[in-house]
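In this supplementary section we document a worked example of the pipeline. Step one takes a protein sequence of length 316 as its only input; no multiple sequence alignment statistics are reported here. Step two produces a three-dimensional model, which step three serialises into structure tokens for compact storage. The input and output of this example are shown verbatim.
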Amino acid sequence: GWTLQEGRNGVCDTVTKDRQDLYLHPASFSGVLDEANIPLLREQLSGAQTFQCYAADCYEEYLDLSDEEYWNVLEARRDEITSFILEQYRTKRSNLYIVDPVAECAAEHFEVRRLCNKDRRNRCGRRCVSELIIQLLHSVDLTVSRNPGTTLDLIPIEQDGWTIYDTPGIENHHSLLSVLPAKELKTVIPTKPIRPFVSQIYEDQSFAAGGLARLDIQTDGKATVVGNFSRNLPIHRGKLAKADELWTRHLNGMLSPAADTSLLTMHTWHAPKLQPGEKMDVDIAGIGWFTVSGDVRDIYVKVHKGVDVTFRKAMI
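The serialised model returned by step three reads:
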């Protein structure tokens, strides 16, 4: 009763059944399974002729909860969540609290893993915690946060006889900032002036922005690639022919931070043709951009599904 989805370009096969899935890595099969099916599956695997099933380990529990049921679970822990927020972000001044970024951190801390939310975006949890924080903000002072998306209410600021209003921004669900957990935001959001990463290439090359995005360049000669990202986000360069193998082996390891566990959950974008003498920006929503110029034949970008990539005339 399982359906096979064949992997490509070095990515292993995946099998699915109802809301269950298994990623078939040669060393270990991993995924979300009905616990009652584990003994049956082990019995089926025991007859395999090319490998041996040694053990089955359970690491996390996923519940079958709707958004409404999940909301009720969080509401039942309102006092606990409130105490966590106030304790974690209390400063030495008794009337000052830090919101940097509270909603994402608290929602992640109290997250309940659900079958309908395997990608772990946890939008329902974030929304519930954000509403609680808005209520708390009426009784405490705000501080300034360098991170985007932390303004949760209308804030009037008096300056030189004028009133400036800081308003909540519109959450961009097509940005990597809405996908990453709170602890990773400090890696991708610049805190110091950006130093461009400059690379001259003479053959097909692949560039990895941590494990968040991959830029593949196919060239007919000399080309230049400039990366504009946070200093804390590592840029790895390597041969395009070995890129799939590198990502399969090192995603979420050397290639970190990451929003995916395999290339299967990443979408590939194909850039328009780069004309001679022109420079093109490849903008990855939320984290930065590459600028490409020279004798380039093709440009491909891999990012988390749902994240936007924009190809534009170079700004610099």
